[in-house]
Amino acid sequence: MTRAPGFWFTKPDSPAVAARLLAPLGWLYAAGTARRLHQPGYTPRIPVICVGNLVAGGAGKTPVTLALAERLLSHGHAVHIVSRGYGGSLAGPVQVRETHHKAAEVGDEPLLLSAFAPTWVAKDRAAGVQAAEAAGAQVVLLDDGFQNPSVKPSLGLVVVDAARGFGNGRCIPAGPLREPVQVGLARADLVVAIGGPGAQAQFADTWGRHITLPLVTGELHPLQTGMDWQGQRLLAFAGIADPNRFFTTLRDLGANLVRGEALADHAPLSETLLKRLEAEAMAAGAQLVTTEKDAARLPPHWRMRVLTLVVRLQIKDWTAMDAALARLGL
């Protein structure tokens, strides 16, 4: 996936010229999404929670999926995760085996998720949910798929990066939206906004009036692993939706960030790229570091040569989420 153009994330009340010119194509894209969503889908026999978003690219769905999986597991439920396996070659449905599969086969996010709960990749999401049901799942977390009609979820979560919000409020290619905000939120049950206090305030100021659903807020925090980042000279690289957020986290931890290499989301980590970055790091007396998701795509012989910063979503107030889960008997 290529990097999103900057004008996608200008303020909704002051769209860039490119956004205005591309607006008619955005209307056509929205109409296509609406037509697709009218198609019939599979109604599962167990609760299915769709963790999706309205913007193209990442918004924090994987941290939300992990937090939900841990919450449900702690309550004694047999949780399975189903993903399309973006970037993977296997059509599935196939259960991801962390020790057997590679990111090139199943995608980086499913490989990461499989360490926490049984995870299935399936280009046909309905077939993936059916495979999970047959394997004994009591509840399925559907990673992405909010605009895919093949499965009828029991609960729909819209995840949003609080700092970016819904961008300029326009649909692809005029903006980052897969469908208009009000249309998407009408099908959702909760909104989960991820970001620090400043980003949350900005999101509330820009988009708060559009949200009538329960709003759950959370923040990504580095996992305490005993690693002291203070003063560490680092050369960071990341192929996530917003690499700068990762670079900022490292600086906030006190690291001396020599440089950050922003890659496209899910970008392949080739031998040529890694050798170039390693040579640059060595010349600067720095250590390579990347995200947990990117680390899943590293070739095995590189994993001991690159540090990994692990973050987890912390939700202070689970009241609205727990109430929604209770309605499903969870």
Automatic annotation (TrEMBL):
Its EC number is 2.7.1.130. The keyword Lipid metabolism applies. It catalyses: a lipid A disaccharide + ATP = a lipid IVA + ADP + H(+). Keywords: ATP-binding, Kinase, Lipid A biosynthesis, Lipid biosynthesis, Lipid metabolism, Nucleotide-binding, Transferase. One of its GO terms (molecular function) is ATP binding. GO terms for biological process: lipid A biosynthetic process; lipopolysaccharide core region biosynthetic process. ATP binds at residues 55-62. Pathway: Glycolipid biosynthesis; lipid IV(A) biosynthesis; lipid IV(A) from (3R)-3-hydroxytetradecanoyl-[acyl-carrier-protein] and UDP-N-acetyl-alpha-D-glucosamine: step 6/6. One of its GO terms (cellular component) is plasma membrane. The keyword Lipid metabolism applies. SUPFAM superfamilies: P-loop containing nucleoside triphosphate hydrolases. Transfers the gamma-phosphate of ATP to the 4'-position of a tetraacyldisaccharide 1-phosphate intermediate (termed DS-1-P) to form tetraacyldisaccharide 1,4'-bis-phosphate (lipid IVA). PANTHER family: TETRAACYLDISACCHARIDE 4'-KINASE, TETRAACYLDISACCHARIDE 4'-KINASE, MITOCHONDRIAL-RELATED. Belongs to the LpxK family. This is Tetraacyldisaccharide 4'-kinase. The gene is lpxK.
